[in-house]
Amino acid sequence: MNKIINRYIFKEIVSSFVIILFVLTFVLLMGKMLQIMDLFVNKGVSFFSIVKIIIFLLPYFMLFTIPITLLISTLIAMGRLSSDNEITALKTSGVSLLQIYYPIAIASLIAFIFTLIMSYFVVPQTNFATRRLLFKLVQENANVGLKEKVFNDDFKDFLIYADKIPVHKNYMEGVIISDRRIIGEQNTIFAKKASLISDSESMRVKLKMENGTIHTVSSDLKNYRKIDFKKYDINLDLSTALANFDKSAKSEKDMTMSELLEKAKRLGMKQKDIRELYIEVHKKFSIPAACIIFGLLALPLGIRSHRSVKSKGFAVGLIIVCFYYILRLGGEAFAETGYLPVAIGVWTPNILFSVIGICFFYISFREISVFQKVNFFLKNWKRKN
């Protein structure tokens, strides 16, 4: 009997879970869609590369959408069972709230394990793979974007003009460059030949020039300097072209647990940087732990829903999620600035919502009417006064 009930409730949650997960993930993906379409339409990036970018982005989005989806789908499922009086029928048949919670606990545990695996292993790898893919696309865009007898301003602080670009060759001839990197000085570079050289390991793009001159004029136009060179290299900043993917080191979100802990122990690290690293360490566990907390909180809130089941469950879920992530962002901000220890700043929302969930679960388990208790307390207080 219990197995049938467990399968029934579990199936009720899963049926809503799949649809809501797809919708929420798609909504988050739409926030990046304009940038992705710009790569496809204006930058000439292939459709296959666009598909790879989307696939790499999905694990990071799902890291947040899975806990939210579990909360909303459980609220909807419990609300539907409650509105159809199925919860009442189960309780009448001797099924306790703990037994009803069992399939929800299994669903929460599955979501927790899946999210933990993504947070610990998958997301750091896909985040870094996304950066490397985008960098590769930037490299391709840099080569394709340069055209003969056209001034190119895709590179920050540089204006590049090439008199001739031989077909199927990776170099330019008759190059003129306006270098505005140094404030107060205007450098104009002439080179007979130049080529773009990329380094996939350091993730940088260099412009290598041969047989040229550098002409420098001071801001007051009183000083002039000329330098001849046989070879001259410039590191190009590609942030204007597509995005700033020329960083050799991984960011905190691209690191695995071992890499975060190893970097945090390096000598000479600033306290602010160390706090940011440990915030990412704690988030690898605190975000998946939200699945357990939301499952616990959703059951007592869901069985109190009666009408407008789906809309009410969805609305209640979004309100809870908003409060949860506002607290999370606030806690992380206080932790980054040093006003709170990292563990407290990151885990406070989880602890707070766990306490609320346990209280609501106890009230529902004991079938305590909070309104009646408060009303009784107020009446007694008025009589005494």
Within the largest sheet, what's the order of strands? 1-2-3-4-5-6
Number of domains: 2
Strand percentage, roughly?
Answer: 15-25%
Order of helices and strands: HHHHEEEEEEHHHHH
Can you walk me through this structure?
With 385 residues, this protein is α+β, with helices and mostly antiparallel strands. The chain folds into two domains: 2-139 and 254-376, no CATH class; 157-235. Helix content is 63%, strand content 15%. It contains nine helices and six strands; from the N terminus they run ααααββββββααααα. The chain has helices at residues 2-41, 47-83, 86-92, 97-145, 257-264, 271-302, 309-337, 342-365, 370-384; strands at 151-152, 158-164, 172-179, 185-199, 204-218, 224-235. It has a six-stranded antiparallel β-sheet with strand order 1-2-3-4-5-6, with helices on one face. The longest helix has 49 residues, at 97-145. The protein is elongated, with a radius of gyration of 29 Å. Residues 241-248 have low confidence and may be disordered.
Kindly summarize this structure in a few lines.
With 385 residues, the protein is α+β, with helices and mostly antiparallel strands. The protein has helices at 2-41, 47-83, 86-92, 97-145, 257-264, 271-302, 309-337, 342-365, 370-384; strands at residues 151-152, 158-164, 172-179, 185-199, 204-218, 224-235. The longest helix has 49 residues, at 97-145.
How is this fold's topology laid out?
Blueprint: H1 2-41, H2 47-83, H3 86-92, H4 97-145, E1 151-152, E2 158-164, E3 172-179, E4 185-199, E5 204-218, E6 224-235, H5 257-264, H6 271-302, H7 309-337, H8 342-365, H9 370-384
Antiparallel strand pairs: 1-2, 2-3, 3-4, 4-5, 5-6
